[in-house]
Amino acid sequence: SISTSAASELDPEELQKEQHARSVLREKFLRCLFAMTNKQVYFNLHEKVKVEATFGASDIDVLNFQVSDLHTPIGVQKEALIRSRDVISCHFDV
Amino acid sequence: MPGDWHLLGPLEWTRYVNKEVKVTAGKDVERCGWLLTVDPVSASLVLLDFKADGQTSVDLVMGHAVKEVQVLQEPDEKTLNRLQTSFVPVRSCSLDS
Fold it and tell me: Residue A3 pLDDT > 80, yes or no?
């Protein structure tokens, strides 16, 4: 996981600036995750494995993605969790 | 790009936001797009590509897989405007304002 603050040893003003930047970035990311809900998402996994699924949700640490109708090379999994460590990138359209 | 991407921190990541970037990840994955944001928890990047038909294509590149992030260009006014209004609900504004 990411260290809590790179600026923690700096002055309070710098820390506040960092926290502000953190909140702006996180809010935009959460809104993007929200927009992914119920969308068809294409996952690019390691070893060139590509799967697609309907996106459900992510946990707060972005460690797992909950998806439905996961199309895998050996069949369709109705409900599944994808470990984010196995994912390189994913793609969807809005 | 100085150091590991996931170690840069919010202030450094913010310098890349709203710019067009090329991200290299995993062994051979390359994605280009306008950087909407970087998740401060996972260091993952959200890249947008605005299509001519009005659709937006979104790429999420996981922070742990990132090898390199290269800035390609600065946004023009129209692109900046689209970036700032992407995913923001019409009736609410950013929590920050």
Answer: no
Q: What is the mean pLDDT of residues A41-53?
A: 94
Q: Mean of the pLDDT values across residues A45-71?
A: 95
Out of 3.40.50.10490, 3.40.50.2000, 2.30.30.100, 3.30.1130.10, the CATH code matching B5-74 is 2.30.30.100
Decide if A7 touches B, using CB distance below 8 A. Answer: yes
Record: contact A89-B59, CB cut-off 8 A: yes
Residue B31 to residue A5, Cβ atoms within 8 A: no
Average pLDDT, chain A: 90
Which one-letter amino acid corresponds to residue B34?
W
Cβ of B64 within 8 Å of Cβ of A35? The answer is: no
Strand order in the sheet with A64-72: A75-83, A64-72, A50-58, A40-45, A87-93, B56-61, B45-50, B29-38, B20-25, B66-73
pLDDT value, residue A1: 47
d(CA B32, CA A70): 26
Q: What is the CATH number of the domain that holds A53?
A: 2.30.30.100
Report the chain A residue with the minimal C-alpha distance to residue B30: A89
pLDDT surpassing 60 at residue A2? no
